[in-house]
Amino acid sequence: MMEEETVRRRHWLSREKFLDLLGAANLIPGPTSTETAIYIGYQQGGWLGLLVAGVCFILPAAVIVTVLAWAYVRVGSLPQVADLFYGIKPVVIAIILQALWGLGRGAAKTRLLAVAGLVAFGASVMGVSPLLVIFGVGSIVGLIRWLDQKRHQKQPSILSFCLLLVAPALAFGVQVGGEYLEPPSSSFGLLSLFLIFLKVGSIVFGSGYILLAFLQADLVTRLHWITNSQLLDAIAVGQVTPGPVFTTATFIGYLLGGPAGALIATVGIFLPGFILVAISGPLIPRIRKSPIASAFLDGVVVASLALMVYVTYQLGVAALVDFVTVGLTLVSLVVLIRFRVNSAWLVVLGAAVGLLKFLL
Questions:
Q1: What phi, psi does 233 have (nearest 5°)?
Q2: What is the pLDDT of residues 332-348, one digit of tens each?
Q3: CB 3.0-4.6 Å disulfide test: which of 42, 137, 178, 272 passes with 303?
């Protein structure tokens, strides 16, 4: 949907620039969708655009999740929204497939990048860390470009070669270090809540569902602030509501500290993304000026899309449960590609199908 709005409809960015921002968002911790929105805001409006884009992307989901948490605290269980999302999820699959089709044609622009995408997809299927896939494939593509320059006697930078070798090692170190880094043990307090979610937002790469392991270890096993059942309910709310899955933090924050806790947890988990985008945003144009760094970013982009393909497959297995959902995905895909209908209308159609199922 971002690509549709910012590239095709409004012409704010070229497709290549959008892919660069998407690839950069995959290189830093935090939710990729949120950080892509923040990058776009920074490109269009500087520091103010960064804040406006990020807050506007997060705020609707945070408000919805807060309302659901309020109902959860009073009723003791989640509102029954499964039937509604029965029809929405297949439409979302179609939207993702349409985006991947458009973005993939721009990313796999050479045979090398197409092969790199297949390698990234295979590594994802085998369970390799998303961070290692992204940095590893980017480094391989950059290294091949470095060797090509050396073969043609263009004297490539030795520093670039060293950075290409160091990047996967750094990614591995961050991944392993993040898994074993724990917040200080303490009784519940808003400051402790903020620090825990600040830590999680600073070290979780890839899918938002990785949150489950970190939050279970900290909030359930070590601190005993919530139960496993409450954690699973929070993850479910983050999954079925619009916006990033990281708004799971909003739900947990409300359970533990009411409206103030919801705000503190939300700020804590999303703040690292704002800071990292602000630091790295000015570097992207410079990266593109270097042939080897540009090749590295090309590899990052195609690896990111390969990861999206695999995640879409996993989501599709859960969403396409019968002939109705499969048909809804196919119809939505045809309408999106052939008639270029705004995807928001198809989401409304999917919700109507789910509501009809509930009524019947």
A1: -65, -40
A2: 999 988 888 877 788 88
A3: 137
